[in-house]
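Annex B. Sample input.
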Amino acid sequence: MGRIGAIIAVLMLAACIPAIEAPRPAPLPDAATVLPPVMTPQGLVVPPRAAAETFVQVVARVEPMAESACQALAARGTDCAFDIRVDPRPDQEPNAFQTLDPRGRPVIVFTLSLISAARNADELAFVLGHEAAHHIAGHIPRRMQTAERGALLGAVYGSVTGADAATMAQLQRMGAEIGARRYSKEFELEADALGAQIAWRAGYDPVRGTGFFERLPDPGDQFLGSHPQNAQRSAQVAAVVAELERGAIR
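Annex B, continued. Sample output.
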């Protein structure tokens, strides 16, 4: 692997859409003991068994819809056999991400804390649909392409200015990072829109599912930020659901 290839690999591992997963996640939970309880706003503790059962039920309903959408919309040759897994480490922050295994199979990973913190099945369904949408839309290869272009531009600039090896490496890394982030917000909004459709077709309420945005820090309108504003994302999902309900989206 060349210098630019190594830089791209490091950036992809650090991004919100990693290229490979590490450590190896665990299969779906089939016992209550794997999930910790969580306190709801009403002061009630969600039993671990209930959290685990809700997650498994959501996967059973949403995954077939995601696979169907993938077969209909993804590029030819895309592997649509989603592998839904759980990161077994109890100290991880609430998170979910889409990645690829070494053979190119799409893997969607949920942390235990996200499963426990979800206030309803709609939130889990929307997150699962969103992550599946990243794969369907080809965001990992598209992100890698823009990162590669950015790294190449950095290398060209370094050559023109006569940069030494250390400065050249830094310019390539900066270019790759800027390239990788160039379309991050657009990718997130694309995944929100398609994810909402997937969750809705599985029988869930994506608008209610976006409730977790209210519990996340708002990224604002940062230059080269990776995520859009929470209000923008919620509004888009609401618009997509309205279109679905009136039959404007087939």
